[in-house]
Write a structure and sequence with these properties.
The chain is of the alpha+beta class. The protein has 2 domains: 82 residues, no CATH class; 213 residues, Deoxyribonuclease I, Chain A. It has 8 helices and 12 strands. The strands form 2 sheets. Strands 3-4-2-1-12-11 form a 6-stranded mixed β-sheet, with no helix packed on it. It has a 6-stranded mixed β-sheet with strand order 5-6-7-8-10-9, with helices on one face. α5 packs across α6 and α7 runs parallel beside α8. It is elongated. It starts with a helix and ends in an 11-residue tail after the last strand. The C terminus is likely disordered.
Length: 320
């Protein structure tokens, strides 16, 4: 026991400083691959700290236990406010509503083209966003979805940046604009089903992540391009895509705060796949349902959300 107490005194301060530094790196997010590693694996890090805190409690190292639990509490608050401050999904109302499906084709090695088309046609979606669209998929989906989704636009690519949207709701003012050579699709959804209101959507795929300052700088530049394009539009906003970054990153918070967007997802899990697919909405919309889509082999391939217009526009503003 004396040996444990001596060891405790020797290592307690370095461990406490390390835990505080890791917590600060997740919240403050300085540049550097080591710091960004903890940011991108923040939820896993938080659960690891929780386990460490329990070990300290068992060893009766009370100062380290208190420090570690404090770090866990700070991270809990940080993740919750960064993902969505609302704890629950809204109750459905008679207000105009829309079912949205977002899917990255590359997330799963489809056994057949028909497996994907069947999933899309049977989903009940009014609006579909497809990411990493290749020319062969583009040709097939145009044939399969044209009758059910007559309003559509696609940009196929043999690289990562192919994307498409398919809609049952009429689309106005559809436009493709670019950040460097990366396409983004925006347009206006307007129909009597939406109660004479309009939704401005923006479909985006950002470059795949790599741990360097250049990646995060270019990502913020890409977000700035989108912000300048749609910030001054008056309609409700819907942003969806593969952003290749976690929702609590400083770049993502810069994007969502600038446009007044909220995450449709209410939580994240350390046991799920990389949380890089997102659907965001403005304050005049609210999410009543969120479901992840899984293939027959259990792989996560996308998500569906149900959105509706608020009868009144109110509620907390995005966290700065």
């Amino acid at each position: 026991m004396a040996t444990i107490k001596t060891t405790h005194k020797i290592i307690s301060y370095p461990i406490a400083i390390l835990l505080i530094c890791i917590t600060a790196s997740i919240v403050i997010q300085p540049f550097g691959s080591i710091f960004r590693y903890f940011t991108n694996h923040g939820v896993e890090t938080m659960f690891a700290m929780l386990g460490i805190a329990l070990v300290f409690m068992f060893l009766k190292w009370h100062q380290l236990m208190f420090t570690t639990f404090t770090c866990v509490g700070i991270l809990c608050l940080f993740f919750k406010t960064s993902i969505n401050p609302s704890p629950t999904y809204a109750a459905p109302t008679p207000a105009g509503k829309i079912e949205i499906l977002h899917l990255n084709i590359d997330n799963y090695d489809w056994k057949s083209y028909e497996e994907l088309s069947d999933l899309l046609l049977q989903s009940g979606a009014d609006f579909i966003s497809i990411q990493e669209l290749t020319p062969d998929w583009d040709h097939f989906l145009q044939q399969q979805l044209q009758d059910s989704f007559p309003y559509n636009s696609s940009i196929a690519s043999i690289g990562f940046n192919g994307l498409a949207i398919y809609s049952k709701i009429p689309i106005q003012d559809i436009e493709t604009f670019y950040y460097k050579d990366i396409p983004n699709i925006t347009g206006l959804l307007k129909a009597k089903e939406l109660g004479k209101k309009a939704i401005r959507f923006i479909s985006t795929y950002t470059n795949p992540p790599y741990d360097s300052e250049k990646f995060y700088t270019e990502l913020k530049e890409h977000f700035t391009t989108i912000i300048k394009k749609i910030k001054n539009t008056s309609e409700a906003k819907l942003a969806l895509g593969t952003y290749n970054i976690v929702p609590w990153s400083s770049e993502m918070k810069y994007f969502t705060n600038a446009l007044g967007l909220y995450n449709s997802k209410r939580s994240t899990s350390p046991f799920s796949d990389g949380d890089y697919e997102h659907i965001f909405h403005s304050s005049s919309l609210e999410c009543t349902r969120f479901n992840e889509i899984f293939s027959v082999d259990g792989s996560k391939v996308g998500m569906t959300v149900r959105m509706q217009f608020k009868s009144r526009t109110y509620g907390p503003q995005p966290t700065q």
